[in-house]
Amino acid sequence: MSALAIRLDELTKRFAPDGPPAVDRLSLEVPGGSIVALIGPSGCGKTTTLRMVNRLIEPTSGTIALGDVDVTHRPVTELRRDIGYVIQQVGLFPHRTVAQNIATVPRTLGWPSARISDRIAELATLVGLDESMLDRYPDELSGGQQQRVGVARALAADPPVLLMDEPFGAVDPIVRARLQDELLGLQERLRKTIVLVTHDIDEALKLADRIALLNIGGVLEQYATPDELLRSPANAFVEQFVGEDRGVKRLALSAVRQLPFEQGPVVPIEADPATARAAMAENRSAWLGVVERGVFAGWVQGEQVQDGTRLADLPRYPPAGRVTPSSTLRNAMEVIMNSNTSVAVIDDGGAFGGVVTLEAIRAELGLSGADPETGAPV
Amino acid sequence: MSVTTQDRNPIIRWDYVVDQSDDILAALGQHLELTLISVAVGLAVSAPLAALALRYRWTTSAITGFTGFLYTLPSVALFALLVPVFGLSRVSTVIPLASYTLLILVTNIIAGFRSVPDSVLDAADGMGLTPARRVLSVQLPLALPSIITGLRIATVSTVGLLTVAAIIGQGGLGRLILDGLRRAFWTPMTVGALLSILLALVLDVLILWAGRAATPWARKAAS
Amino acid sequence: MGAEGRVVNRVATQAAVPRDVTLWEWLSDPETWTGPTGIWSSLGETVLLAGIVVVVATVAAVPLAAWLAHYRKGEIGVTWMVTLSRAVPTFAIAGLLVPVSLVNGWGFEPWPIFIALLLLALPPIYLNTYTAVRGVSSGSVDAARAMGFSERRILVDVELALATTLIFAGVRVSAVQVVATEPIRAFLGGDGMGRYVRDGLGQNNDTLVVGGALLIATLAAVTGLAFGLLERTALPYGVRRLKASSTV
């Protein structure tokens, strides 16, 4: 099934007829095939909104449309079989095996058993579950494995839409990071329309194509891409929610490969001292990097480069860290901070891929648009 | 002397009740007496058993299992088995009834004592209370609500089970029931049954009130 | 002479056993087992009544308790059941109902003993069902709802399935209680396994009394074991392996 867009239109929910609204005239559109994060403080109605999409909660007024179809126009049990739902506690059926859990919706839809077994095997590979786990019971699995089963179960009938409510909240940070990466990988292949509720801004920044930041009472404060949110927070609330380290957070959004190639204070090992010294001067660096047969071979102390010395004879120091083209600018900055040379070497599949300098990072962020209010680029 | 016509044998004949009030009260009195004795014996046996379980945690399972087993023994069978040994006597009545109360009393005494927060015990020790005083003035009062509940349940069920003891001639109000049955005269049956239910209710409320009086701080807690 | 006549002529249905017969002799005599007052016959009467009581109690209590627990209603019913379970004086209630039954022309049996035993049988089944269904993890129920299960399917496929172990335990407790208490029937104008104790007391015959008591106790124990065995074999593996009180 190709991805459907989800459109919320003046969506309102009041739990008490004369009380304050939990969600107040929320309007936004989730583009098909994208991940949108709903985030905000407790009481902002993010979970309520999510649960209105599959009508676990019925809206008081306003509409929700999946593609072109208003969700209230379909019988609710049928609607829900077209929407995958993943929750924090996972909610696996303890009395059924992993395979039986995953097979739940396909069985309801009447798929033939052969098709179901194939689908289960396919999903197991997709979410990273070992085949031996299929016949186990949920309580025999770790938290991370259970959540993988939860995702597999939600995807079993290949729904176009996936709703996730703090799906990785119950596992430890290491497992959480891995599951987040796997979700991104999955999305690259499946291109589902995903709405993700989270209270973790870093998770939202990492996973979402667009972020909807809600305030108490379901008021939409800003709906933007992660970069826009960090670069231009719409108001004080957004600014505060996103955190004071917006700049550093933005670094995590860009990859090293986005930077233009820079040679930096690096020369081939056969180069003569004069060329070497010129390179160091140009880059205002006290260190010299040497490359041997296209591979970075280490740093040499600048003051040891005298006339008549051969670079190959000088003692070499390994770099403090290496970054790859896919590393984030944040990783690169970590390495720069930790090295004496103030420069990070890029390792492009073994070969020397240039360097990353602080100036380059600043320029990259500045080039994305300086905020007129704050003046200088971040 | 039991030939009666239908309209002289309704469910309850009040003139008979008034007439035989002495006998009825005697039965009631006997019932009350045996109930109190059985519960008292049950309590006397339960207290040390509970103390044992509280002191040596690993015995809890065995003690609960044993008292639970006693509880499942059919009452008719238990009364009957004791007859050849102790005859048609009060002993044959009290032993089974007391046995049936053990489970609930032991369970509730243990629960009551275990519900005392460690911090309270700590404070008591810290103030230099001797173990005996600590039990009497700290633990027991705090365990009381649970014990009272156990006593209520034990008493109410003993009143009910005692009626069965009429089969071995000791049943108090149960005797009225069997009497009426034997004579095909319904009034004593009805009176016996109703009074036993009433007695259970009254004792339940009395113990509840006594418990409330003894634990003024727990009044707000659910009974 | 109608009902009264039956009581006065009670002696005729008693087993006549000489007083010097030992327990072993009595049990090994085939005549003890056969015939209208034989053990098999009495066993049949007891099992029949107890069986009907437990079945009726289960059919009445399980759907009601499950439905109420699913919709989170009827908390007060739980309190009633708990009170009922503590305070039912079965013998007194049966005794009370005998005159009522006779005066209305319904005879000694089965209504008084049946109703009294039914009141005894309901609480364990009701309470266990309610607690178990109520205790099913909300995560599983939420996920099921989100997968398009109807409320009825959630109740049956998820909640009741997970509650099965506890419900079975409740039925077992109930059955044992009913079987253990049913002998009072023999003292209220009926027969069943309690008749030997009754006859033994009446005839001052220790053999009958002890034998009758042992038979009753054995039957109660066997009932408990039989249900235990049933729990171990009849339930699906996925349900059985979950401890009765735990939910994921």
Q: Would you kindly provide a written description of the structure presented here, covering whatever features stand out?
A:
- The complex is a heterotrimer of chains A (378), B (223) and C (248).
- Chain A has 2 domains: 6-251, P-loop containing nucleotide triphosphate hydrolases (Rossmann fold), CATH 3.40.50; 257-364, CBS-domain (Roll).
- Helix content of chain A is 33%, strand content 23%.
- Chain A is built from 14 helices and 16 strands.
- In chain A, the strands form 4 sheets. Chain A has a 6-stranded mixed beta sheet, with helices on both faces. A 4-stranded antiparallel beta sheet of chain A has the order 2-1-4-5, with helices on one face. Chain A has a 3-stranded mixed beta sheet with strand order 11-12-13.
- Chain A starts with 5 loop residues before the first strand and ends in an 11-residue tail after the last helix.
- The termini of chain B are far apart.
- Chain B has 223 residues and is mainly alpha-helical.
- Chain B has one domain (9-214): MetI-like fold (Orthogonal Bundle), CATH 1.10.3720.
- Chain C has a single domain, classed as Orthogonal Bundle (MetI-like fold).
- Helix content of chain C is 73%, strand content 0%.
- The radius of gyration of chain C is 22 Å and the shape is elongated.
- The relative contact order of chain C is 0.14.
- Mean pLDDT of chain C is 84; it is low at 1-12 and 244-248.
- Chains in contact: A-C, B-C.
- Chains B and C meet through helix 4, helix 7, helix 8 and helix 9 of B and helix 1, helix 6, helix 9, helix 10 and helix 11 of C.
